[in-house]
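thought: fold this chain, then report.
action: predict
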Amino acid sequence: MKRRDVVSGAGVSVLGLATLGTATNVVAQTSSDVSITFDDQATDGTRLTVAEVRTDVEAQFRILDSESTTLAGPISLDAGTATEEYEVDLQPPLTETETVTANLYNSDGQGIAREAARITVSGEPNLAPGIEPTLVEPDPDAGFNYPYFLYAPARRENEQQASILVQPNNSGQTTDDFDVQQRSARHRIEVGTSRTIADRLSVPLLIPVFPRPESEPVDWRHYVHALDRQTMQISDGPLERVDRQLLRMADDARQRLSDQSYPVDDQLMLNGFSAAGNFVDRFTVLHPERVRSVTAGGLNGTAILPLEEADDRTLDFHIGIADVEALTGESVDLDALSETNQLLYMGEDDGNDTIPYDDAWSDEMREIALDVYGEAMVADRFPTCQRAYEQAGADAQFKVYEGAGHSPRVALEDIVEFHQRSLDGEDVSEFGQQLGLRPAFEYTPDQPTVGNETTFDASSTAPGVGAILAYTWELTDDETAAGETITHQFTEPGEYAVTLRAIDDKGRVETTTTTVRVGETETERSQESNNTSTDDQEPNNTSSDGQESSNASTDAGESSEESTAGTTPGFGIGVAVTSIVGAAYARTRMNGDDQ
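observation:
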């Protein structure tokens, strides 16, 4: 959507809604400044104009056809937006005259404004012809031993150059019948989620048709559709280096598109879920220089870690990157990886865990994975992945969708918006969340003294996904407390290691420790200064000694923060559940995971 005339403070923010319903039943508005002006008009079907959109609350804007199919948007609007002459590009284009609606939704997904207009389609749209779903046969001479499907939506001839969207096939079946894989790929390119994404973005779509064999040409332990370690170890035959075969497919598709005056660049946008999510996640780490953006979901909480070791464990592919150079001949380019836009996501209630299965994990890798990632997919493993990226200095956006299971549907709007922003060169950092329970606290005054109250406040603790149930404090060897905010009086000067323990409803228990230096009271300092002056006084040196004593007292009252925050099991320092409350919550969570 392009704005020709911005009247006041229009802005764009990240789409925060998982789904948006139609605005047929518009909720009552207390605001007097939420409105749409949308007039009947004639168009070639590729673009229309909305006369005015105004909103004094944060809102999402969409154009829907008569069957509630999205033709444009959603686009996020800041509170205070007032724009005239919205020019809206339609994808897919309208092919016949019909009534469409312009809609505004609030942050809860409720319709707050709706206006209908009769759109008359006339004349021939100025469109570059697309490509209907087409099977491209294998071409070993071009570097790929298996076929792929290619689709390209019609687009305006003057539209900016785009990137190819790649969706790996994931049939969910281990079989030597290759027709099963081909039918699955054809279904995806005709009516699958990736087809919707390609249409919404107006970009070509490529789906490779790789086998997931039972016995030929390799056995079932090679999870080709997930690009696992066993697959990457294939050194000859038709399945050797399927990651490179995919690159050659993309190069072939780019040439075919160019021959039809449909230019695309050499960057790829990747989308995948479940095994296909693992495929695109791992592929991105291997070839970050070729990936513009990637959206990978349903990852079992086991995104590949951009580290060579953790917890004294060597992290080989596909857990980490220790042996990538030995496997591929090239080391991982962490700088290029950090430049690649990555959205890695899970559903909060996703229970589809591949770790117990031998086709996804060998016994040795399973042991390392559980040790490094942890047990629970969302509560333990996914926050571990985020911390590993932070440790490696590689940027990525991690997100958990509340109330969602093993399905990409809840993330569809974010996926479209994420790739669109990547195409436009816009920032994507607001898509991510801070995962994991990360306790933190502040204390006042910053120079505590004996006998005076010191307030400890844990409200800055990041709960991640979930809710904090309890805070406990260890203030000295024999003094404890509970609560988000507490007060305490220290009875002796010195250094105290104050530990905060946070417990959440996911069964996680994390700690952080800060050294607090407690000084003497003003009275004690004054008495000590006087005693020192009397005992050690020399002629004409009283003032100098008194100043020195005062500085020493001030130094004793300074604080030193040395955070030793605990982490989830399997990465860094594991935190023991030492309290009865914490142990009870952990048992409850484990029982829930087993059901």
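thought: worth noting. The chain has 13 helices and 28 strands.
final: tokens above.
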